[in-house]
User: Which sequence fits this backbone?
């Protein structure tokens, strides 16, 4: 029962619709009093105070804490204002009212706060279930296929899509779950990683497949469902072939940003991803042991991590997918990052910026895909600069703007779709499109 509750869809569907409808009816009930001059002035005063409270909260969240790492969207601001006004109306409804109205007013405060939380979350869309919003994973540990005891053969020169013969019993979709990846070398406290195994990885004597290590945004969770949805669609077109995916946790605590670096303040996030996760993948997954078939991918905070780690470790990952990535680590709070992580050393900070990492060497075998929402004005210039630097460094670069994707869920889902449609022929999982 609890598991079903945690898996409830809170972005679309009956739950969020019910909250919206009940909140609207409750607000109408609270307002439905005789239109005396006093009541009209009281409601207008409550509205004004609510709007002022929304401004104060906005200033604290965006300017003081920079909690979301970017300006609050109009969608978020409208929900914030609506909640504050609704709570204001509920509070003034406690005076000069009967017991029933007082009870409704008290209950409505909780109702309005919950509805506002759901509305704001739906705008971002990253927490699709109640469990995800509460930080409780509903994914179960996934059983990994046994690795062959014989030595692994190097990848054939024949693309996998040509040599692969899918069995008649091939599953129609892949499988997701979690795995705890030991932090043996880093000591970094990461949450369990999300795992995606495509249909071709679930059959007896499965072929070795390409690997993707995916990093999500901040705040966020290592949720494999988004990339699984994209790769299930790709696998359906490619006889079950798609990469195996680890959605690793580069944050540990979703309220902080370790910048995918090793630091005394936030721990050894870089070592965790580049050593612990990589070593675990090599030892436990039926993957092609060749950097040409390995991809580091990420969204927002994870996108910045992806291009940074791809530039630092081209011997591990030849391919990068940067979806709406920040221009450089801590770009949204650069002054604080400079002081907290780099002890005020500007040269040390500059050395970690992707444009400078890319300028330091050539990447003739690199394959990089950059996507960003076409109306994401805060991120487009930075993504373009990093894409240009990757191209100048010799990478094969694709840049694409998601139509009206913003910096919310369509940017992620459409970016993933576009990225893997481009990437899978390069990985030998699909034929190259005709010129």
Assistant:
């Amino acid at each position: 029962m609890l598991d079903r509750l945690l898996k409830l869809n809170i972005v679309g569907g009956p739950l969020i619709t019910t909250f919206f409808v009940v909140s609207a009816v409750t607000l109408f009930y609270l307002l439905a009093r005789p239109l005396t001059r006093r009541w009209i002035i009281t409601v207008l005063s409550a509205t004004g105070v609510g709007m002022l409270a929304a401004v104060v909260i906005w200033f604290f969240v965006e300017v003081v804490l920079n909690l979301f790492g970017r300006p609050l969207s109009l969608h978020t601001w409208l929900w914030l204002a609506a909640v504050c006004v609704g709570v204001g109306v509920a509070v003034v409804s406690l005076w000069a009212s009967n017991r029933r109205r007082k009870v409704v007013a008290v209950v409505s405060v909780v109702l309005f706060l919950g509805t506002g939380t759901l509305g704001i979350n739906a705008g971002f869309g990253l927490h699709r279930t109640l469990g995800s919003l509460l930080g409780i994973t509903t994914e179960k540990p996934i059983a990994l296929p046994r690795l062959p005891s014989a030595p692994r053969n190097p990848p054939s020169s024949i693309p996998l899509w040509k040599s692969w013969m899918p069995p008649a019993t091939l599953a129609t979709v892949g499988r997701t779950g979690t795995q705890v990846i030991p932090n043996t070398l880093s000591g970094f406290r990461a949450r369990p990683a999300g795992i995606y195994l495509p249909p071709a990885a679930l059959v007896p004597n499965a072929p070795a497949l390409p690997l993707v290590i995916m990093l999500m945004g901040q705040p966020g969770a290592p949720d494999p469902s988004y990339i699984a949805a994209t790769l299930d669609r790709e696998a359906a077109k490619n006889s079950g072939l798609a990469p195996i995916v680890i959605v690793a946790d580069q944050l540990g605590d979703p309220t902080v940003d370790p910048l995918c670096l090793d630091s005394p303040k936030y721990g050894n996030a870089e070592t965790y991803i580049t050593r612990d996760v990589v070593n675990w993948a090599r030892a436990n997954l039926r993957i092609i042991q060749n950097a040409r078939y390995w991809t580091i991918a990420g969204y927002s905070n994870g996108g910045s991590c992806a291009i940074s780690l791809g530039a630092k470790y081209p011997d591990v990952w030849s391919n990068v997918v940067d979806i709406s990535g920040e221009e450089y680590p801590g770009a949204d709070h650069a002054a604080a990052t400079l002081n907290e992580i780099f002890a005020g050393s500007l040269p040390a900070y500059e050395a970690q910026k992707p444009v400078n990492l890319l300028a330091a060497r050539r990447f003739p075998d690199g394959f990089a895909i950059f996507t960003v929402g076409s109306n994401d004005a805060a991120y487009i210039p930075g993504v373009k600069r990093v894409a240009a630097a990757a191209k100048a460094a010799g990478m094969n670069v694709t840049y694409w703007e998601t139509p009206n994707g913003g910096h919310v869920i369509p940017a992620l889902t459409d970016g993933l779709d576009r990225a893997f449609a481009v990437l899978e022929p390069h990985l030998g999982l699909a034929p190259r499109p005709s010129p």
Remarks:
- Residues 129 and 310 are 31 Å apart (CA to CA).
